[in-house]
Amino acid sequence: MTRPPAGRPCWAGPGPDPTAPAGTEPAPPPRVRGVLEADVTVVGAGLAGLSTAYHLAERDPSLDVLVVDAEGPAAGASGRGTGLLGPRVGPPVDQAVRRFGPATARRMYQASTEAVDRVLELCARLGVATGPRTGEQVVATRTGDGLASLARQSAAYRRLGLDVPVLSAAGIRERLDVPYHAGLLYRAAGLDPAALSGALARACAAKGVRFLGNSPLRALRPGETADTTLLVFPGGTVRTRKAVLAVNAAAGPLGLPVGTVLPLLVHAVATAPLPAPAREALGDRTGCALIDAHPLAPYFRLTPDGRLVLGGGRPLLAPVSDDSGSAAVWAGLEERLRRLHPALAEAEVTHRWAGQIGMTSDSLPVVGPLTGRPGVWYVGGCCGHGLALSVAHGAHVAEALTDGAPERLPWHRSSAPTLPLPAPARPLLRAGLGLLERGARRTA
């Protein structure tokens, strides 16, 4: 698995500690040693955890906030995203109307657009570059079933009074020279999620937030008093008044009572900088990204230095025993990339990487207090849409922990549905993912 070095557009792996000033080479973050104390301990230094710590420090500077990660800031999925920032949460809008009613479905969509705005405002405040210039994202289809699905969604948006324009094939071609039949146009952006994670970590450190790394959480135990919790790590223990477990799909191995948050490994590839004609055909002029409406079908965007980043394909149920599955997914993505446009037939793929996301069976995240664990919150299960949602979730939890009364939405809950996943059931789940992938391939 090849990744560009930290600081390149769109990617960063578990490299230098992003809490350090630019241009320095800091020592690895210290581990948890002995018995420590904190007012609030955030476990997980991805976007959700860093956003929680940042907003806690902003709302109440007197709090002693500690962030602990199994590795370090942006070492997980938050450092491996493809950088598509768009509005999406939960099921398609027509399904949300049926499940939650028109008023809640409308508010859900508005909350997702506000989450995009929050990230853009945060990037401006922290000096993180964003793009594309026009801030557009097309969710498009080239199948009859996809057209029917987008028509239902468009009708639902209209009934809810939400402005989500429909694009014809010609409208898509004005932005991207790709053979799609129709699409829905969303206001969106692109950014380097690792750069945002690093900037958030530095901002937290500047506000007095403490960081410890290389310390995976092993267990939670009741504290000596009713208002404390003990967090157990390999090298020591943290006694904390409140805890936020921004651990995503690690909830399962920890035995957290949050329902089933499936750990899925998703993949992406990136090309070398493309020649000008290829960049022009794939959105350089308009700055538009595209997401295929079919589950698991590819999505792509251009980076500021002219590379094409393409993600999608079959996710793998983690943990995986070797790299053979990932190699097959990357090969499939490269095949789809070369069929996307004639100008990509000879494009060099220079980087391949993967990151683990958390999926729930009802497509909704989980953001809420743990049942039976006073003062302990969980954040996870963004279902691949965490770039915008994670920042919003951190702000929500920070408000709740500082005696605020945040708005409640369907994903502000303590658990997702539970799926029985004994060992014999895992091959069935893998087979289901394979069927979805084959359907996605038929859309090419």
UniProtKB/TrEMBL annotation:
Region of interest (Disordered), ranges: 1-30
Sequence ranges assigned to domain FAD dependent oxidoreductase in this UniProt record: 39-399
Domain of life where this protein originates: Bacteria
Transmembrane parts of this sequence: none
InterPro entries from the UniProt entry: FAD-dep_OxRdtase (IPR006076), FAD/NAD-bd_sf (IPR036188)
One Pfam family hit: DAO
Name of the protein described by the UniProt record: FAD-binding oxidoreductase
Organism: Streptomyces pyxinae
Taxonomy of the source species: Bacteria, Bacillati, Actinomycetota, Actinomycetes, Kitasatosporales
